[in-house]
Amino acid sequence: MIRRGRRVPGWRCVPWLLAVGTLVLSAPLEGQTDRPELLHVQFDGNAAFPDDSLRRAIVNRPTDCRLFSWICAVGIDLKDRSYLQPRELDRDALRLQVYYMERGYRETQVDTSLVQSDGGVVLAFDIDEGRPVTIDSVEVFSFDEIPDSSVFRNLPIARGDPLSALLLEATRDTLQTRLRDTGFAFADVLVNYDIPRGSYTAQVMFDVATGPRSRFGPITVRGNRELDSLAVRRMLPFREGQLYQAHQVVEGQRNLYGLELIQSAQVRPVLTAGDTVVPVEVVVSEGQVHRVRGGFGWNQTECLSGEARWTSRNFMGGARRLTLRARLSNILADALAATACSEVGTGVFADLNWQLAGELFQPFVFSSRNSFSASAFVERQSLNPVFVRRAVGLDLAFSRSLGRGLVATAAFRPSLTELDAADLFFCTSFAACLPTDIEVFDGANLLSPVALNFTQDRRNSLLNPSSGFAWILDLEHARGYTGSDFGYDRALAEGSVYRPVGGWVLAGRLRGGIVGRGRFGDVDEDRLQVVHPQKRFFSGGANSVRGFAENRLGPRVLTTDVQTLLGYARPDDAGPVCTPESVMDRTCDPDGMPDDAFGSQPIGGTVLLEVNAELRFPVVSALQGVAFVDVGQVWAGRPEVRLDDLEFTPGFGVRYLSPIGPVRVDVAYRFRGAELLPVATEGLRPWEEGEPEALRLTVPWANGETRTLDWVATDEVNFLTSGARVGGGRDFWSRLQLHISIGQAF
Questions:
Q1: What is the CB neighbour count within 10 angstroms for residue 703?
Q2: CA 216, 222, 226, 228 torsion: positive or negative?
Q3: Residue 573: is it exposed, middle or buried by C-beta count within 10 angstroms (0-12/13-18/19+)?
Q4: Distance between CA 398 and CA 407 in Å, rounded?
Q5: For residue 385, which of 647, 606, 599 has the smallest C-alpha distance?
Q6: CA-CA distance, 561 to 426, in Å (whole number)?
Q7: Are 476 and 488 in contact (CB under 8 A)?
Q8: pLDDT tens-digit profile of 15-25?
Q9: Distance (Å, whole) CA 733 – CA 669
């Protein structure tokens, strides 16, 4: 049979129209209590399509467990009960036949049967798929000359495929879209196919009518009040007289939505059959020029935080955007440190953090694909328990759109940075542990990298994505000629993907980075190489490897004061673990002291690897459950990288899907046992006659007594030759890590 000049949707929809008509005219169904519970639906004989695909094509659905099937199997009644709909049995069989026919199986037969079971029935579909009609040849025919032959390459349909109406329609749409992107604004494609009598093969031909090649005509802008028409036109990727390309119409509309001042935008080509000029009408709706926003939040690592922002969305015309922002965090951190803000830290880490920033954004630089931003900031930020940073800086960035959601950015990021609580970084980096040496490095220094950044975001939602992907690649280079006191090269890459699985979401993320050491200032590079603490990698936390507290995964140093070392007695009463002489010459062996005798300070690393996987599933209403596995590690350097060091932390969590984003509670388990870590303490020197008595060292002793020694503690960082083992022998509950925050982990 030969069919010419008809599009696939016509014959494809006939069975559906019959089925829908039958549904509309059918009598009301019986009450739920008069029907047996449908315990299971099974499919027999299907080879071409899996059960889950066929199950979505029918109306009768079986009783299912709201959570995991094993929960209901052990007797917990959390079932969504479904009941047999007898009058849908024949129609379900018809739906399956239509499903197969649309995909090239024209001889499929479906029978239904019911089997009584305890408390309900089992519905079975016996499917005889038959032999499919396959495509023997595919041809594209056109009387008009088409200059770009690539239009006909890599089509969705190919020889050997089943004669699927879905593939035919997809191929027709692909051809039509490609032609309209090469100037043929009125291109149309018809589908023809021939199935010889008694044959199971088909010859497919696509008839192409291109129409005249067109160009963009006059561009009219309507609806703008504050924004001038020139600013709207220049955000369009096309100009009057250019060859018509349909995708540029969509791109122009997307560019206009990128201007925060515009609430809605329509870019409408005025198509008149046979015309070689396509006028374009742009209709926009503007929002308020000025906007003020404020926010308030809480998490365990920043305690209470607040932010205020003022934005002018048409600053000096041209849709330029000026934003002024102020932010506070660690609010009430001291008062809530033992309860709601346990990850903030104490002392200087719990002091108020703040930031003042301003940004000027220019959306058009020679092209609608280009933009420029300049921002300045001054801040005080803490990274518990790593360092406290005070900085003032600039960020100058030029960005270009390279495609759908793909943006490349070149930037220069100079900042003057001063660090506190960073003694261990510099001491461990190059053994400069004297206060006079450390003062040079933790003073005010310039970090001035040039950067190249690539990012693409194709997720369907920023707050709670369920499909799509996103990735980012960030490269930085700093040397003396860029104006930086610290030289380094740094690369960080991250990619995440989201896939719907029924009503669930499978999400994964891979993150890795490496940073190379460079020299500091004018110091000889062969003698001294160091990575600034701000550019090292840290891992662990609510958005990282969740089996660990914030920044607690990776290289660490144990810290303890010298009084603790000298006052801790051996269990066999053989005297103190360390003597002043052994501390002074660093031969003191602190191994065997209890864990609470030490603090733990991360020092970061130069190689990072993290892998995260989550399965997100609905629970009830606005609650979402999550099962996850996080794997990761930070290594001090490339020679130390071993995959055996990767930490594996499984866990589960709950999300409340609030209007401001998912409120997240996660609990993870870490398997890591005892670790042998280096120990740092203060230096010692003998007390000399004539010095104040108050300088003499007082240490705790047995029975609550104290002893005063003829020794004086110094500000020098003193690394002991022997380390100490911590973390061993912990019970199950102490290996659990709780995180509470807002937003998905990735």
A1: 4
A2: positive
A3: exposed
A4: 10
A5: 599
A6: 19
A7: yes
A8: 444 444 444 33
A9: 9
